[in-house]
Design brief:
CATH architecture of the largest domain: 3-Layer(aba) Sandwich
Distance between the termini: 49 Å
CATH topology of the largest domain: Rossmann fold
Radius of gyration: 23 Å
Strand content: 15-25%
Number of domains: 4
Oligomer: single chain
Strand order of the largest sheet: 2-1-3-4-5-6
CATH superfamily of the largest domain: Cobalamin-binding domain
Largest sheet: 6 strands, parallel
Bound molecules: S-adenosyl-L-homocysteine, iron/sulfur cluster, FE3-S4 cluster
Amino acid sequence: MNDNSALICEIRTLLGGSPPKALVRSFGCQLNVSDGEKIKGLLEKIGYTFTENEDEADLIILNTCAVRESAEDRVFGIIGSMKKLKELKPSLIIGISGCMTAQAHNAEKIKKSYPQVSFVMGTSAISSLPALLLDSLRGVKFSADTSEYDDFSQSVPQVRDSSFKASVPIMFGCNNFCTYCIVPYVRGRERSRRSDDIIREVCGLVHDGYKEIMLLGQNVNSYGNDSDGEISFPQLLRKLNGIEGDFVIRFMSSHPKDASRELIDAILECDKVAKHLHLPLQSGSSSVLDRMNRRYTAEKYLETVDYIRSKDPDYSLTTDIIVGFPNETDEEFKDTLDIIRRVRYDNIYSFIYSKRSGTKAAAMADATPEDVKGRRMRELLEAQREISAEHYKRFIGRKLRVLVDDASKKHTGFLTGKSNEFIIVEFEGDTSLIGKFVEVEITEAMNWAVRGKLV
Ligand code: SAH
Ligand code: SF4
Ligand code: F3S
C-alpha cells in the first residue's frame, strides 16, 4: 500500500473541527461486505466516526454489487435519491465503490448522469481512498481510480461490523467464467493470500474473542492454485483447525467441480470446521450445467453429496439455484426439482437468471417467457419449503450448539442464532448471551428455522 500518512494528515487538517461522520453501505456478497469493513478501517484512521443516518453523514460510500440487474437498479435508485441530500448539504461527499465501478458502462453512467457523485473507487483500489477524498475536499468535482493495486496482500485496517463473527478473505477473483456470471470480469483473476498471513489474522481474531471465522473466496477450493509453494485449501483448514480456542470455522463458496474427497475428509475430521457445506448447484440438469460452463454433471455432483452423506447422513447442505437460464426447458427445470428433493438441502438461495452484458450467456437466444420463469421460481420455493420443514424435524430432541446472534425481531423474549449446521435456532433467553455459544435442545421444526430451549 502506498504510504498514506501524509494524505491522512492533510485530510484531517482540512476537515478540522468535530469528527466528521461517514455512512458506508455495502451490497452483494460477503467479500464485498469485507471490503466495506476495510473502507471503514481507512476512514477511522482518517478520523471519521460512523452513522447509519444519511441526513447527518458528511460522507456516504455505496459499495456496490453487479451480480444481477436488480442489484444495480437498486443502487442507481439510491444514488438518484441522494441528489436532494447533496442540494441540502453541498459539502456532502458521495463515493461509489465495489463491483459496479469495474464495468466501464456503469462508471461512465455515474460520471455523466449523477453529478452528485464525487468519486468512483475500483474494487482493487481501496488504498486510494485517502487520495480520492482529498480531491473531493479540495473541490475537485469528480475523480476516479479504478486501477488495480491489489491491496489484498497488505494489511489494510478494518472496522468489523460484529464483535464475535469475522470474515477473512483467503482469495480474491475468479477464473471459472460461468457463462452467466459477471464476477470474473469485475474481480479479476484468482489471487490467493499467503497462508501465514491468514493464519496470523485468524490467531489475532480468536485471541480477540471472535467465535466465528468465515473464510471467503469465490471458489475457496482452488485456494493456493495460483501461488507456488502454497498449501491447498484442505491443508489450510487443517492448520486453522489447530489454532487453540473455542471458535467455529465456516467457508464460502465451494465450487462442486473442485469439491474433492480430500476436502470432504478434512471438513469431517476438523472438529472446529462447521458441519455445513454450501455447494452451489445452479441447475440439476447436466445440459444446462454444460451451457453454464460449470464443468460438472448432475451425476458428478450427486457423487460428492453421496460421499458426504455416506460419512454423515445428517450433514447439512445448502445451495444456490438459477431459474430460467437461457432456453431452460420444462424438462431441464424438472431435473432441478428432482435433485433438490433427492439431496434434501436445509436451505436454497434461488435467483431468476439476470442477463449481464459482456458474459457469454448474454449472447444466447432465450425464448422462455418471463411468466414461465416466475412460475418455476414459485414451484422451486414451494418444493424447498416442504423439504426444509420435513428435514428440520431430524433435529427434534437433539441438542445443537448455537452461536447467539441477536434478539429475535419477530418474537419478544426470544433470541436467535445459528447452529453449527447453519440452521437458524430460536429460543428464550437473555440478551447477555449474544456473541456466546449455548446448547439448545430442539423441540419444534418450522420451515425456516427450529425452536428449542436452553440447556
Ligand atoms: N462464486 C460463487 C457465486 C458468487 S455469485 C459460486 O460459484 O458459488 C452468488 C450466486 O449468484 C451464484 O451462485 C448464482 O446462483 C447467482 N448468480 C450469479 N450470476 C447470476 C446471474 N447472472 N443471474 C442470476 N443469478 C446469478
Ligand atoms: Fe461466478 Fe462461477 Fe466464479 Fe462463482 S465460480 S464467481 S458463479 S464465475
Ligand atoms: Fe456482487 Fe461483486 Fe460479490 S458482483 S456478489 S459484490 S463479487
